[in-house]
Amino acid sequence: MSVPRVSMEDNRIVHGVAAGASLVIALALVTVALAQASPLLPVALTFRLGGPGVFASVDLVLAAAVVMIVAALARLAIALPGVGGRRVTVVGARMLELSQTSAITVFLVAQLNGVVEAGTLILVYAIAASAIGVLWMHSRAPQPAQRSAWPYSLGAAVAVVPWGIVALYQIAGLLSPTPAPALVRVLTIVLLVLAAAAWAVERLVHRGQLDRARAELAHVIIQVGTGIALVLLVVGLARPSALLP
Questions:
Q1: Number of domains observed in the structure of the chain
Q2: Which residues lie below 8 Å from residue 132, measured CB to CB, with a gap of 6+?
Q3: Is residue 170 part of a domain?
Q4: Does residue 3 lie within any of the structural domains?
């Protein structure tokens, strides 16, 4: 029995709904930021002979809202008439979304797990975004070439580096007097699983085992799941009694 295909119109509806869901999550995050003090994550710069130390901070709630706003804008761009019919534009918009949302997310996760050095945080962001660039170039290749595993494996190997840094700090933090909260450790794993799921979906597309329309639906579910995880993380840190009365 053949599997029914998803029409372009249905696909645009999916992107529109995804944009709306992302905007709702972003609005919820901004509401939390306005209702109470948002956790500020320090950024430091040190040298062997000393340095300025903490010189900036990142607002956790607003940064998480930016993740969802970027996702919403990319989905809206794809949902607009005249864009969805051009494959490169659709895939390009999706990869731009994925590069920025995944990079900002792992940046925040690294900070929450104890990474404060500016140089390390910049590398975490840049490596995560660059890995999606490798995935994008692979997605633009002809279908027979997409079945090759080595470009995908290269991108995945690059993508896992920031999460390896996070894992190192998380494990080291367990040995310190002030480890990261349990909520941070649990949701770090959840966000890692969601990031891995996004890569797995793209591999299925490359191998011809999943069409692009259903892949986009899977990405919507992953993105909404990421947004929910960020909301739980923000609310749990900003107002623990909201989750654990």
A1: 1
A2: 95, 98, 99, 102, 103, 155, 159
A3: yes
A4: no
Taken in order 60, 61, 66, 72, the sign of the CA dihedral is positive
CATH code at 118?
1.20.1070.10
- For 161-184, write each residue's pLDDT tens digit: 999 999 999 999 888 888 889 999
Per-residue pLDDT tens digits for 95-111: 888 899 999 999 999 99
188 in any annotated domain: yes
Task: Quote the pTM value.
Answer: 0.86
Q: Using an 8 Å Cβ cutoff, are 234 and 29 in contact?
A: yes
| Parent domain of 80 | 8-242
User: Among 3-7, 17-21, 37-41, 120-124, where is mean pLDDT lowest?
Assistant: 3-7
DSSP codes, 38-75: PPEEEEEE--TT---EEEEEEEHHHHHHHHHHHHHHHH
In a domain, 134, yes or no: yes
Provide the 3-class DSSP secondary structure of residue 148: coil
**What is the rounded average pLDDT of the residues 30-47?**
83
